[in-house]
Specification:
Layout lengths: L3 E4 L2 H9 L12 H4 L4 E8 L5 E11 L6 E5 L13 H4 L1 H8 L2 E6 L4 E5 L1 H9 L13 E2 L1 H12 L3 E2 L15 E6 L5 H6 L3 H13 L2 E5 L4 H15 L6 H14 L4 E8 L2 E11 L2 E9 L8 H15 L4 E6 L11 H9 L3 E5 L3 E4 L2 H13 L1
Parallel strand pairs: 4-5, 13-14
Antiparallel strand pairs: 1-2, 2-3, 3-4, 5-16, 6-7, 6-15, 8-16, 9-14, 9-15, 10-11, 11-12, 12-13
Helix pairs in contact: 8-11
């Protein structure tokens, strides 16, 4: 029997997520407040007896001059992706969103397809014949992800083609780097750091780098470093009000949902980063640093403090978020991959984002627009 899909309150949505081990921060009710250009709606999946068994945050982005919307569920919805009868969960979604004026639906099932442990990634980077991570044999492969992809295609969904630079898609990253914490002691996690990381942490301690937690009043300091980082690493920075809105929305939902860390040395902030917490999943969200005094290694000190705090919070995973899937030495993002994997992180590939066109003409026009952006 098909499940019933209907709008739910923010309180119902949050209570459902809070009762789970974790869910993506992009599927929290508060995330809709971070995105004022989108109209947010909380959806619930109900059994015939009235039980709420799944939730989703859908963001509706209007087309200019048209009352038609792109419906997007980033890293969601929060449903049972292992269910043998998955069709009854997903079949109501396009129909409901079409009734809300959507011309296309995009979602990102939070299902892992493949993993590469740090040793495998290190070997792949050193292999001159390896050009992309996806071409390298994984340490583990999830059959359920392959099965899910087949089922989605049969239901009419199609995988979004990778876009952006070097594997960074226009939506959420397909490849991420995660440090597993579950079942490990903090000493074991520290032992997973490579030699360079351990050396740099000691160097920062000896130099007197101090890592402290900041508040909303410190966001402009973070932002100054962030814009410097954007110029150095060649990406388009978000505006300061975005981070202020993010802080207000997430901390209003839970006081510890978003944290800000600052690495000080000799009276100057050299690095800063935001951290997000949902249940047992902790994300390093945005990072920023200056090129000055890099020899005192503020980034290593800051990340290790964040990892220690995540452990104290009971995290089962510390998520460094997106990584490039390219292994070319000429790529400026390869250094970021080395940095994250050096912390004991494994490369993780998700099943990707999927589209369900409801109006093929408008969907095609959106594809063309995104490809040229």
């Amino acid at each position: 029997m098909t499940l019933t899909l209907r709008p739910i309150s923010r309180a119902e949505h949050l209570a459902f997520v809070d009762a789970r081990p974790s869910a993506s921060h992009l599927q929290l009710p508060s995330w809709g407040d971070v995105k004022p250009d989108w109209r947010a709606e909380s959806l619930g999946w109900f059994e015939a007896d009235g039980r709420l068994v799944g939730v989703g945050l859908v963001l509706l982005r209007p087309l200019p001059r048209l009352k038609r919307y792109l419906a997007y569920l980033p890293e969601g919805p929060v449903i049972d992706w292992t269910a043998p009868d998955l069709e009854r969960w997903l079949e109501p979604l396009p129909a409901y969103l079409k009734s809300r004026g959507a011309f296309s639906v995009k979602m990102g099932p939070p299902v892992v397809a493949r993993r590469w442990n740090p040793e495998a990634v290190k070997a792949a980077i050193a292999d001159p014949g390896a050009h992309r991570l996806g071409d390298v044999p994984p340490t583990s492969c999830e059959q359920r992800a392959l099965d899910l992809a087949d089922r989605l295609r049969r239901m009419g969904w199609r995988r979004t083609e990778p876009g952006g630079e070097d594997g960074f898609a226009a939506g959420q990253p397909r490849y991420v780097c995660q440090v597993p914490f579950a079942g490990r002691s903090l000493e074991e996690i520290r032992g997973g750091l490579n030699q360079q990381w351990r050396r740099n942490i000691k160097k920062a301690e000896k130099a007197g780098v101090k890592v402290v937690r900041g508040g909303a009043e410190d966001l402009p300091v973070f932002y100054g470093l962030y814009t410097e980082t954007a110029e150095r690493d060649r990406f388009l920075p978000r505006p300061l009000p975005y981070f202020q809105r993010m802080w207000s929305a997430l901390t209003a939902e839970h006081p510890d949902r978003m944290r800000l860390y600052l690495a000080h040395h000799d009276g100057e902030v050299l690095a800063a980063a935001t951290m997000l917490v949902v249940g047992g999943h902790v994300w390093y969200s945005y990072g920023a640093s200056t090129s000055r005094r890099r020899e005192v290694r503020p980034n290593n000190a800051m990340q290790w403090r964040m990892m220690c705090d995540a452990y104290e919070l009971g995290a089962h995973v510390y998520d460094f978020r997106g990584i490039t899937d390219t292994l070319e030495e000429s790529n400026h993002l390869l250094g970021l991959l080395r940095f994250k994997v050096g912390a004991g992180g494994e490369a993780v590939e998700y099943v990707g984002e999927w589209d369900f066109p409801l109006n093929r003409l408008l969907h095609k026009a959106l594809d063309v627009y995104l490809s040229r952006r």
